[in-house]
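Box 3.1 A note on notation
Throughout this textbook, protein chains are presented in two layers. The first layer is the amino acid sequence; the second is a token string describing backbone geometry. Keep the layers aligned when reading.
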Amino acid sequence: MISDNIRRRADGVLTFAGHSVPALAEQYGTPLYLMDEARIRRNCRIYLDTFRECFGTQALPLFAGKAASYKQIYRIVNEEGMGIDAVSVGEIHTALQAGFPADRIFFHGDGKTDADIRYAVTHRVGYFIVDNPEELQQLAEEAALQGIVQKVLLRITPGIDPHTYKALTTGIVDVKFGVPLETGQALAFVHRALSYPSLSVLGLHCHIGSQVFDESVFEDSVDVMTGFMAKLKEDFGFETKMLNVGGGYGVRYVDTDKQIDIPARIRRVAGRLKARAEELGLALPFFLMEPGRSIVADAGMTVYTVSSVKRIPGYKYYVVVDGSMADNPRYCLYGAQYTVLHADREPELYAVYDLAGRCCESGDIIQPAVKLPEDTRRGDHIAVCTTGAYNYSMASNYNRLARPPVVMLTAEGSYLAVRRETIEDLCALDL
């Protein structure tokens, strides 16, 4: 199986986190997002334990809430002792409603409005990751107006290509995020930031992209950023106290994806940072990363019920389910791959189908060319694996479809983290 929390019983029934997938589908209905709580906690601890090993108390992993944002996720990562990376006031509000401490929230994003900045400062969010000079000035003015000194990190674009999906690349020179090093703008950005008395510039941030399997790109980021840190010390006498190298470790969606040894990768990055700091005469900065996908992706599974099977001899077979691009848009957006399994049985004979959704859209394909039982029929259950990241958080009401519930699975049983939307919910904002 693609992940060790997915198994088949002797009778062919698929299980996830030790629970029968068809039984959960019958209990909660479909479409259905399942989340393995123990796997989420295990993935958090992989980062926390390795950070402590490498840096002691001078490091903190931040859960990237854009991967999955609802109150129970924030409760879990808070209990585990992580910080969070938030990219909107909606994510901040959700975290605060869940009891997450504001001083461990890092407010990120490249398009913060005046209202966003005011909200975050008013709610005393711990850190801003400032993307651009316009945001910098507005934040400085708002912090001064409220009589506080706001802690900030400055987002720098290091000019590194992680060789992933173009849509997931964030570190090259001409990307929309951050201020580029190559043009000299980053140096001016830091100099300007240091001039504001209402801001406490603690360090730097960079991010190269998402779903990264390359062995060396994080070490390359460390090389570039420590070189810049040395330049800042030489030119301005500025000692970088915090360095955030972003997130992006890849996860296995299909068998051809590599299994990443995350602790080994972190140890390599830590070793490179320590060596470079010593070489350049820099104090070792407080170290931050922003894992999101690698915390929640393999903790998730989406379950559907087959609505129809369309067989066009000599052309194509379709399995049409009760979900759609509305609850999983990632294939439609950038061709994301998934492992798809029949949840009820494992037969001897298979056929190749496109797994299609119910939206009135010819491009509503959840995954093409998947192997499913030749006798797949209406009422069967289909599982799409590794959907814990960027599925619920990207879900929409396209075609006026209600979003599925999120059900947490534990050793003791299951519970609702997010209830299913109703058709009444769909009209709740209409006047």
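The two ends are 48 Å apart (CA to CA). Residues 118 and 383 are 43 Å apart (CA to CA).
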